[in-house]
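job 3f2a | input accepted
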Amino acid sequence: MLTTLLFTIIIVVISVVLLSIKVLLKKDGRFPNTHIEGNRALRKKGIFCAKTMDRMEMRRKGLYDILNEVKE
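job 3f2a | predicted structure (72 res):
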């Protein structure tokens, strides 16, 4: 039981170290931006994440709002 736990902890520590080598050794090392808006090609095509799309839709005026502005 103890050997299995130690073996698991060693594997996890090695994995974390290997995944963070670039971040630790580079001067301004950062984790890569994997968010959709971090991708220039998708941004040029107008593709955003679901939260951003919802926010944009909420700001967009509907027909009811436009007609009320015309009446005033």
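job 3f2a | DSSP finds five helices and no strands in the chain.
job 3f2a | closed
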